[in-house]
Amino acid sequence: MSQSRPYSAVDGKAGLAILSNRFQAVVDEMAQALFRTAHTVFVKETQDYGAALVSLKGEVFAAPRRSGVLMMIGMPMDDAIAAISHDVREGDVFISNDPEATRGMCTHLSDVFLWKPVFHEGELVCYAWSFIHMTDVGGRTAGSIAPSSYEVYQEGIRIPPQKLFREGVLDEVFLDTFLINTRTPEQNWGDMKACLAALNTAERRVRELIGRYGRDRIVRGIDEVLDYAEAQARRVIEHVPDGTYRFSDFIEADMVGLGLIRVNLAMTIAGDGMLLDFAGTAPQVRAALNLPTYGKDGHWMLITGLVNWLCTQEPEIAYNAGIVRPMKVKIPKGSILNPEPGAAYGARYSTSHKVCDVTIGALAQAVPDELPATDSGQGSILLVSVPDFSTGRSKVSVIQPIVGGSGARPTADGVDGTMVILNFLRNVPTEMIEREMPAIVIRRYGLREDSGGAGRWRGGTGTIIEFETRSPYTTITSRAMERYIFPPAGRRGAEPGTTGFTTLNPGTGRERDIGKIDILELGPGDVLRIGTQGGGGFGDPLAREPRLVRDDLLNGFISEKTANDVYGVVLDATEEIDEAATARRRREIAAGRGWTVPPEFSFGPAREAYHARWPAGLHDAIAAATEGLPGLKRQLLHGLISERVERRLDEGTVPDTAAVAAIADEVLHLAGGRHG
Q: What InterPro entries does the record point to (predicted)?
């Protein structure tokens, strides 16, 4: 081991940068060790995993920027650390997947966290941390997650924080108990061992840093890099005009019979701080859409879009939990963003993504040229289970992340076929899918024409995937399907993107549109085709350079009809731009518009009609009428009041706040009062 360098060698701003880069190198190596040794497609291809270094207070002080899930910096590790702090020894490795016992570190049971204390001469310095999304952790359906699950007990085996290794010795009884409750035990243990490789890598590298710079300097450096990132984040926030900016959007829970669920935000910027107030957001639901944040400031599933914005404004920002310190939150208890214990959480990604959309929508009103249009809004995971007739067990695997295109940016098109706002999940190669699951044949996988919202900058295109199953008893789940009703909004006069679709047995006499998937049973020869959403466009489509429209047409991103009717670009017989005809066509389109000043957001006819029928004030009134009720009672009464309001709307009456309060009093009386 090399000798310690004098403090002065890593003091000051340059020394802080050295330590920050050293910490970054450790987590990057952790991520590569995990990635290269993982067993399942979802980890080794899609990269749904994480690696981090965590302070003794539970803050992530280093996380990868290019590998795995990119938002670990906002994961709150404090309560998980507190749960085990009475007995932490060298060689221990801890494990948990329980959202309730960790109070929001885990957010559904499929994310299994492993962490290891790093000691120096008997003193605890920090923790090495990792997680993997396990393909299956038991529960009522293969893959463990279905939107229709309504309590956490249906979603698999729960592990409160406990030791997997005790001073280097594996707890085999616990491990066997855990694995026997899952459908993919060998693969799960393989991915867990990949996590262990990452943790051991981190432990070795941190000890090398201590040997080089000394324990005291490393401990001091952990606090300093966190403080430095906070200062950088506050400088960026400080340029945003002070004020309160409001935005709302809706989770589409029609696949479980719950209709539209509002996520409501008032974002207040004051100096270098930010408050995210989610008052008016819908109560927790009897479905797997609940997001267990425990109301924690800077929670990673609330601030992903905001962190991306900070990183684009300050590309050299230190990437750690200091970034999220300025982001305070206020969330009603018992809401879908802060549910009471016992709720189902599996498909919470739908909810997190909607929060991302509303935070960007709110902030875009303050700094309109710094935020993109709405992205596809869907981060679904298409998973298949087929029987293994030789063993009597099931084979379970991810087919693809079913995501759409990214929203157009203020100065560039959106990214085609993937979303960059939330985690950037990678494609699984078709050859890999068919090798792992021979009963599945991919018939088509490519970009979807005319899906990206038209604009000066085009929204990223969605995708189409079509596959055939050749096995009986095939089960398909695709959690977190979204934006089949309301498309991703366009900005600054641009068009919204498209909505999604799911077609069973297309082109046959058995073809039918089945909408969002909960749990779908297929047989031999059945074919499923899924089309994902394109991102919203940015800026007036008539301002798009004609050559870019021509390129999009020739590349199959748009149709000739869209080129002519929306962009006003006309090609001649040689597929070159007819400049005179294009100028005439663009004048015709502009003359027929209903606006001269471009709207900031273009939501599309479906959402505009909904707002006309259900104005924001109605949602606010129902939220106010049920405020303060226990979680389960609030969700029940919220639904009953909404049904009565809906009947009034059918009769042609829009209830005012007083009328909603009267309806609420009547429903509460029938239900035994506020505390009955």
A: Hydantoinase_B (IPR003692), Oxoprolinase-like (IPR045079)
